[in-house]
Each structure stands twice: as structure tokens, then as C-alpha cells.
Design goal:
With about 240 residues, the protein is α/β, with parallel strands linked by helices. It folds into 2 domains: about 160 residues, Rossmann fold; about 55 residues, DNA polymerase, domain 1 (Orthogonal Bundle). It contains 10 helices and 6 strands. Strands 3-2-1-4-5-6 form a 6-stranded parallel beta sheet, with helices on one face. Helix 3 packs across helix 4. The longest helix is centred in the N-terminal third of the chain and has 17 residues. The chain is globular, with a radius of gyration of 17 Å. The mean pLDDT is about 90. The structure holds magnesium ion. Magnesium ion (MG) binds next to loops. Magnesium ion binds next to loops.
Length: about 240
């Protein structure tokens, strides 16, 4: 049975939650900041240089790996045995100045009862830089990154299980926030509440078909375009 995801926070649904797990890119900062487009360009350039392809060919291959393996990195490791550290270093050589402090989000995260984590397919260095720029880094107990995941990216179930085991996460008392629908399948199966972040204005945003939520996505409990507002909505009932 499919039940349509809800758009506003129902505090009672989260009253049991003490483990808060957040994706980083396009989740802790909105899609329109477009930080990821810089990483995307760096990855295209990396593929082009590695395989001596023109940018267009490199982009096609990059996107194929992203689709088939969850990340470009995973595809390049499997097919070309590249050095992941070198790749991560180059991919994340970006300008973070578009990210401004978000005190509203910081307060909302701080007010959540329990432990907070970042679970990202990027690197710790990237997560620290981004969350640092947003002024929210101190609110997180830990960052579980693609290196900790043994380079096996979300949506792989093993990666969530590895994270949960390492952090002794009580998944029945956990909530996961993500911008990619498929990355919420495993968390939901593990008993977590799932919240999908969507762009505030879809116009002009190019997304892959599989990046867009479908009516049949019954692994998504909530959909929101404003993380701070959603989290504040959870606090109201706790007072
Ligand atoms: Mg993301």
C-alpha cells in the first residue's frame, strides 16, 4: 500500500527519535546554492584527463558511473582502479564562499534531542568545510564519509549497516534526511523515519529522472523544501 508522503512535520511521529542522520550536499544546504555543480565539473575534468576524453564524452561516462555505482568515484575505482584519495582531493577543490552561516538551521539542529550525524558520499574534509561554512559543524557528533564506507556509496544497504554498527545506532529511534529518493530505501527498511529534501523551486533545475521522487515512493515518510522549518516544526510539541 502506498501512502503519500506528508509535507509538514508531525511531531508525534518523531517523539521517539534520538538519532538524527543527515546527508550533506543539497540536504544541509539548499539545492539552489549549487555547490555540487563545482564538484560535478571537477569530476568531469578528472574523468576527461584520466581517460583522455573530450568533456562531453567524459560527462556521459561520469553520469553513467554515478547512476550505476552510486558515485563517479566507485565506477572509476571498479573500472580503472584509481586512487580514491587523489580523486576526492581534486573533486572537492571548490570555492565554499556561496555557503553562508545558517544560524536558524544551527539552532534547529542543536535543539534536537540526542545524537546528530552526517552521512555523506563525499569526504570528511568536504563535510567539515561545508558544515563549517554553514556554522553548524559543532552540532554533529561525527561524520561518516565515503572513506569510512570503504568507498561503497549510498544507496548500498551495507553502507548504512556499517555506519549503524560503528555508531551503535538505534535505527528504530533514528530519522534520516536526504535529497535523493533512492538513498532513503535502506534507512526506511532499517526502521528509520525518512525525510526527503526537495529543491524550493524546481524551475531551471536539471535533475535526472531517478533523482525525482515518484508517487510510488512509499519509503519516503515526509517531503520538505525547508529543513530548518521542518525541524522547528518538530520542536513545537516537545515544549
Ligand atoms: Mg545529497
Amino acid at each position: 500500500m502506498n501512502t503519500k508522503p506528508k509535507n509538514t512535520a508531525e511531531p508525534a511521529d518523531f517523539a521517539h527519535v534520538t538519532e538524527w542522520v543527515f546527508d550533506l550536499d543539497n540536504t544541509l544546504y539548499p539545492h539552489h546554492i549549487n555547490l555540487f555543480s563545482q564538484i560535478d565539473r571537477n569530476m568531469t575534468a578528472y574523468v576527461a584527463e584520466l581517460l583522455q576524453l573530450d568533456p562531453e564524452e567524459a560527462r556521459v561516462l561520469q553520469k553513467r558511473y554515478y547512476h550505476e555505482h552510486g558515485t563517479t568515484l566507485q565506477g572509476l575505482m571498479i573500472h580503472y582502479g584509481i586512487d580514491p584519495n587523489d580523486f576526492l582531493e581534486k573533486a572537492h577543490a571548490i570555492d565554499y564562499s556561496a555557503l553562508l552561516p545558517d544560524p536558524e538551521l544551527g539552532e534547529a539542529i542543536k535543539a534536537l534531542p540526542g545524537r546528530k550525524f552526517i552521512l555523506t558520499n563525499g569526504s570528511v574534509k568536504h563535510a567539515e568545510a561545508a558544515a563549517g561554512a554553514l556554522g553548524i559543524l559543532d552540532h554533529f557528533e561525527d561524520i561518516f564519509d565515503i572513506v569510512a564506507a570503504g568507498y561503497l556509496p549510498k544507496p548500498a544497504g551495507q553502507t548504512y549497516e556499517k555506519f549503524a554498527a560503528l555508531k551503535q545506532l538505534d535505527t528504530k529511534r533514528a530519522a534520516m534526511f536526504e535529497d535523493l529518493p533512492r538513498n532513503l530505501v535502506a534507512p526506511r527498511a532499517m526502521g528509520m523515519k525518512t525525510v526527503l529534501l526537495v529543491p524550493r523551486n524546481l524551475e531551471g533545475i536539471v535533475m535526472e529522472r531517478w533523482e525525482i521522487p515518484a508517487e510510488t515512493d512509499d519509503h519516503i515518510d515526509y517531503i520538505t523544501d525547508n529543513l530548518s522549518e521542518f525541524l522547528v516544526g518538530l520542536q513545537d510539541s516537545r515544549a
